[in-house]
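Weekly modeling sync, notes
Attendees: S.R. (lead), two postdocs, one rotation student

Agenda item 3: backlog of single-chain predictions. S.R. asked that every request posted to the team notebook include the full sequence so nobody has to chase files. The rotation student volunteered to paste the first one in as an example of the format we agreed on. Action items at the bottom.

Example entry:
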Amino acid sequence: MPLIYLAFGLWFLIEDNYSMTITFFITGLLWFLIYPFWERRHYINHYKGFIKENYKERLGRTATLEFSNEVIIAKDNGSESKVLTTELEKIIEISSTIFVKLKGGQSFILPKDKIDDIGTLTGRLKELASYLNIEYCIEDKWEWK
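Predicted structure, as returned to the notebook:
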């Protein structure tokens, strides 16, 4: 869009209509500078609302995960599920969260601030990654944009 405003501004400049030239140049510049921030905020609010509406039953529930070499057992409020560790694709650790990514595209999301003994967990996950010969990525510098 800023390029379209620039093109119209150049066209009006050729036509010697300086007030329209200035208007289109300023609009294009403002669009270029302000729109990315507005769009980012818009998408963040959109996805927050989507998550609150569609996952309200899942948010705030305490769950436990047990990692063995063969299965991962997830338990929460009376339900239990098992996932074979052969389904693990990758383990990614960032400064605030650990993602245990599965081959189907799903992930276990483990917020570090909610885990009592993070050192034991990261040690166990590194052992599991080594045992399964999968990648354990540490990306401490990664941040949301």
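Discussion: group reviewed the output briefly. The chain has three helices and seven strands.
Action items: rotation student to repeat for the remaining queue; S.R. to check formatting next week.
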